[in-house]
């Protein structure tokens, strides 16, 4: 016999309501149906779930464990239904490190004011496509090359590169630094989502590279003073940390900021998001691939 959601919902309702009679009223079924659902659940699981007397009703030890899992599963099922039925009334915007940098808060405010019927949800996903390839988001902020074919993208702005260093680093005394200043240093990078590689330097003058896993590890490693990092300006505004100082790298090429989406199934609000973020970066959105017009 297969486990069914209605059986789990019946168990949860019985415990929350306190009696079979009240549970039946809440579920809109007969008391006999409530009893049958509970009995069938106990047969499927092979354990007794409730201690029942004429005056009380309490979960057994096994019942407490099953009840906790039942609540979780029912919540997941409700979320699944909500996602499927609300559809395009929610826009999930992914990012790997620092969202939209200094524009993040203003983007959220303007979105809420202009599109109150489309809920904006920021999702941090430390993957190459900021959760897009994994199906976690509808749209993603990326600052590196987007895989062609499956994904479309638009460049909405550019950000200067900054060097992150410990507060006692000798370079802190300078207002800006050059790539040559970092050539002899140990450079910590995130190879999955980062924007920095040894290719920024000439082949004969490249820093040593040490990989890291995410922005928190990156910052913690730099704080030790044994290495430095190079990052877009968005990190500067989103990750101000004790022990870390940022200096602009004056001769490094800027980092393109892009919004990416699934080429063959764009969210209807994609065009609006591209336009708004381009407005905030004060650069005309440059369309580079498949159309993002709402369908």
UniProtKB/TrEMBL annotation:
Entry-linked InterPro entries: LysR_HTH_N, LysR_subst-bd, WH-like_DNA-bd_sf, WH_DNA-bd_sf
Keyword Transferase set for record: no
Coiled coil spans: none
Residue ranges annotated for the HTH lysR-type domain, each copy included: 3-60
SUPFAM superfamilies per the UniProt record, alphabetical: Periplasmic binding protein-like II, Winged helix' DNA-binding domain
CDD domains: PBP2_LTTR_aromatics_like (cd08414)
Superkingdom of this protein's organism: Bacteria
Keyword Transcription regulation appears in the UniProt entry: yes
Keywords linked to the UniProt accession: DNA-binding, Transcription, Transcription regulation
Family that this chain belongs to: Belongs to the LysR transcriptional regulatory family.
Protein name: LysR family transcriptional regulator
Species: Amycolatopsis halotolerans
């Amino acid at each position: 016999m297969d486990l069914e959601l209605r059986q789990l919902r019946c168990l949860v309702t019985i415990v929350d309501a306190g009696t079979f009679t009240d549970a039946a009223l809440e579920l809109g079924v007969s008391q006999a149906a409530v009893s049958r659902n509970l009995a069938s659940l106990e047969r499927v699981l092979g354990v007794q779930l409730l201690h029942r007397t004429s005056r009380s009703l309490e979960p057994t030890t096994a019942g407490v464990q099953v009840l906790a899992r039942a609540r979780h599963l029912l919540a997941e099922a409700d979320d699944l239904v909500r996602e499927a039925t609300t559809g395009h009334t929610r826009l999930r915007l992914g990012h790997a490190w620092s969202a939209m940098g200094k524009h993040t808060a203003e983007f959220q405010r303007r979105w809420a004011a202009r599109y109150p019927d489309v809920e904006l949800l920021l999702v941090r996903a430390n993957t190459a496509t900021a959760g897009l390839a994994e199906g976690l988001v509808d749209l993603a902020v990326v600052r590196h090359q987007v895989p062609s074919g499956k994904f479309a993208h638009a460049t909405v702005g550019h950000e200067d590169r900054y060097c992150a260093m410990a507060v006692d680093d000798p370079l802190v005394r300078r207002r800006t630094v050059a790539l040559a200043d970092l050539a002899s240093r140990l450079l910590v990078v995130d190879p999955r989502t980062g924007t920095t590689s040894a290719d920024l330097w000439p082949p004969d003058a490249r820093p040593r590279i040490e990989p890291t896993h995410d922005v928190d590890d990156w910052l913690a490693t730099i704080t030790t003073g044994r290495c430095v990092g190079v990052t877009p300006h968005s990190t500067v505004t989103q990750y101000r940390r004790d022990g870390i100082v940022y200096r602009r790298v004056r001769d490094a090429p800027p980092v393109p900021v892009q919004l990416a989406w699934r080429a063959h199934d764009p969210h209807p609000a994609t065009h609006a998001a591209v336009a708004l973020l381009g407005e905030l970066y004060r650069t005309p959105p440059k369309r580079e691939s498949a159309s993002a017009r709402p369908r």
